[in-house]
Amino acid sequence: MTEPAGVGLSAPATALPDLNELIHAAEWRRALATARLSGADPDVQEALSAVVGIQEGLRARRYPAARRALADLKRAIQDAPAGELSVLRRLLDPAALERAVAALDSRPAPRGEVAQSLEARLAPALELGLTRAEALNSLGVQAALLDDTAGARAHFEEALLADPAHYRALTNLGNLDLEAGQSAEAEARYRQALKIHPDYDGAHHNLGVALRRQGRVGESVSSIRRGQRLGMRRSKEDTDAEMREQFSVSPLLKWLRWGVLALVAVVIVLALRGALS
């Protein structure tokens, strides 16, 4: 008796990509997935997870998150042995990354700052592959503020070449389309950005504006409301993250935090005693 087709046969296993090649190509998310599937050394997985965290923090302009991930990366590769970790040490200099993130997180430029001045300030970030896209996006924003639409578009497009998943740069291209009266093109950009990051509040809100300009009011209201909800959530998360970072670096704030918690505990105890008496 013949077996039904496929019974007793194992499907050929799909070969995993070469981890070192992915690392050299800076395909960090694929490298992390490959490391996990292949059972790579836990230190390698930790380091790659940190790199992905840095990249995601920069894309979202969440610098406290990027700095936390950078601290994780430093711990993971500081005594790296031979193999993938040593490759990461050669490709990713934590000290250079710290300078780049600091440049990106510096005080916003005044509206009148010339592009050359901003570019000089962002030089540490422009020099590194991991931070280059965010630096180019910042240059694009500054160009747009200075009414240099062509320069802004060039910077945003260059940012996407450096990081095709930089959804804020993609959204900014949509904003330029919207300002040019190209609502349908802007809608396509925003939807593409939301495929990359479905919870990006800015793309939801601006998609609503693009839909309204096309007369699609019902869709517009839904998109804008979703953007508002996500924006409120993001604002709270960002505030909490900044506070945690300040508490972690300031001994005085740590002491005050514990003092406040102790005071709250005393108040609760006294209130309970009063309620029970």
Give the structure's gist in a few sentences.
By secondary structure, the protein is mostly helical.
Question: Could you explain the architecture of this structure?
Answer:
The chain has a domain at 17-92. It has 277 residues and is an all-alpha fold. The radius of gyration is 24 Å and the shape is globular. It is built from 15 helices and no strands. The protein has helices spanning 19-24, 28-38, 42-59, 63-77, 84-91, 94-104, 115-121, 123-126, 129-145, 149-162, 167-179, 183-196, 201-213, 217-249, 251-276. Residues 1-12 have low confidence and may be disordered. The chain crosses the membrane at residues 255-276. TPR repeats lie at residues 167-200. InterPro entries: TMTC_O-mannosyl-trnsfr (IPR052943), TPR-like_helical_dom_sf (IPR011990), TPR_rpt (IPR019734). Keywords: Membrane, TPR repeat, Transmembrane, Transmembrane helix.
In terms of DSSP E residues, the strand content is under 5%
Shape estimate: globular
Helix content: over 70%
User: What is the arithmetic mean of pLDDT?
Assistant: 84
Main beta-sheet strand count, sense and barrel state = none
Low-confidence stretches: 1-12
